[in-house]
Design goal:
- The complex is a heterodimer of chains A (113) and B (113).
- With 113 residues, chain A is mainly β.
- Chain A is built from no helices and eleven strands.
- In chain A, the strands form two sheets. In chain A, strands 2, 4, 5, 6, 9, 10 and 11 form a seven-stranded mixed β-sheet that branches.
- The termini of chain A are far apart.
- In chain B, the strands form two sheets. In chain B, strands 2, 4, 5, 9, 10 and 11 form a six-stranded mixed β-sheet that branches. In chain B, strands 1-3-8-7-6 form a five-stranded antiparallel β-sheet, with no helix packed on it.
- Classes of the chains: A mainly beta (113), B mainly beta (113).
- The interface between A and B is medium-sized, with 23 and 24 residues.
Chain lengths: 113, 113
C-alpha cells in the first residue's frame, strides 16, 4: 500500500510569512494527525481528525495555525504568520481508527529565518 | 497526565550484540503501546504494536514486551546490525477517550561494524 505522503519536504521562509503543508493519508484511513517534532524530542500532537471533523485541537495555536481536511481525505496545515520558534519538523500520520497503528509520512522540515 | 521515559537516551554498541531498549510510563491504564524507529530526516516507521491484553510481540529480530502493572515495555533487538542504527521511540495510548498517544523522547542507537 502507498504510505502517507507529505509535501514539501523542506521549506525555508522568513518570519511573518505564511506557509502551508499538505498531507495525503493512506487510503481508507479515517484518522489523520498533525504532529510537531523538535530536535531530540518525541512528536507532539497539534490536531487530530476523524474523517473531516477536527476532534482534538487543544494543542493547536489557533491565533496563527489552521488546518483543514477536505472530504475527509487530504489535509493542509497552515501557519500565518510564521515565527522563528515555529522551526521544526511537521509530521502527518494516519490510522484506520483512533486506536489503530500509526503510519507516518516523512515530514516537512520548516526553517523560519 | 501520562509521562513516557526512554532509557538510555543514547547507545553505541558493536555489531552482533543483543540489545534492550526501555520504555516506562506513569499511568498503567493504557490501550496499547507502539514502537517506532526513525532514521535521520525521515518520519517514524512502525515496528511493533502491543495491545494492553498482550505480553509480547515479535517481528524478525525484534521482540517487544509489555508489563502494564509495572508501567514498562522493552524492545529487544537480537544480533544487532549497522542497519539498525536509528532512533527508537515508544508511544503509549490511554484507555478510552481519544486514544491520543504520548511519545517518549527516544533512544538513539548506533551499531558500529
Amino acid at each position: 500500500e502507498a504510505g502517507v505522503v507529505q509535501s514539501p519536504r523542506y521549506k525555508i521562509i522568513e518570519k511573518k510569512q505564511p506557509v502551508a503543508f499538505w498531507c495525503n493519508p493512506i487510503s481508507g484511513h479515517n484518522t489523520l494527525y498533525w504532529y510537531l517534532q523538535n530536535l531530540g524530542q518525541g512528536p507532539e500532537l497539534l490536531i487530530r481528525y476523524e474523517n473531516e471533523e477536527a476532534v482534538d485541537d487543544s494543542q493547536l495555536p489557533k491565533d496563527r495555525f489552521s488546518a483543514e481536511r477536505l472530504k475527509g481525505v487530504d489535509s493542509t496545515l497552515k501557519i500565518q504568520p510564521a515565527e522563528l520558534g515555529d522551526s521544526a519538523v511537521y509530521l502527518c500520520a494516519s490510522s484506520l481508527g483512533p486506536g489503530e497503528s500509526l503510519h507516518f509520512g516523512n515530514g516537512t522540515r520548516l526553517t523560519v529565518t | 497526565k501520562q509521562e513516557v521515559t526512554q532509557i538510555p537516551a543514547a547507545l553505541s554498541v558493536p555489531e552482533g550484540e543483543n540489545l534492550v531498549l526501555n520504555c516506562s510510563f506513569t499511568d498503567s491504564a493504557i490501550y496499547n503501546l507502539q514502537w517506532f524507529r526513525q532514521d535521520p530526516g525521515k518520519g517514524l516507521t512502525s515496528l511493533l504494536l502491543i495491545q494492553s491484553s498482550q505480553r509480547e510481540q515479535t517481528s524478525g529480530r525484534l521482540n517487544a514486551s509489555l508489563d502494564k502493572s509495572s508501567g514498562r515495555s522493552t524492545l529487544y533487538i537480537a544480533a544487532s546490525q549497522p542497519g539498525d542504527s536509528a532512533t527508537y521511540l515508544c508511544a503509549v495510548r490511554p484507555e478510552g477517550g481519544s486514544y491520543i498517544p504520548t511519545f517518549g523522547r527516544g533512544t538513539s542507537l548506533i551499531v558500529h561494524p
